[in-house]
Amino acid sequence: MECTPTAEAEIDNNIFPEWTALPNGTFNAGRLSHVGQFFFDDEVNSVVDKMHPYTANPLKDRTRNWRDSLNIFEDSHGPEGQFNPVFRLEFLGGVISQGLAGFITMGVNGSASLDNWWKG
Fold it and tell me: Model's pTM, two decimal places?
């Protein structure tokens, strides 16, 4: 999970169909075709929030999925909602503390070209 300053539990995704590998193991991004987020079920988040190391997170008021800053979760349930941005989770053991594996399928318009406003 990603703990951001707003305490959201989501995974950001940016799709660059064109990129160049750099010698230091990073990459130089080319054309950007998709920006989005994937989410974990809020019930799972509530359980994980009570486990170490998340109990040490100073941001105790986690932003819930329907309040994400980009409205992706909310939009997925609105009139244009043709997708589910929540991972399907499988337990790796008998209890959540033994781990989870998340699965999701997404489609991307590979010919799309978005402004890569973050050049960092």
Answer: 0.74
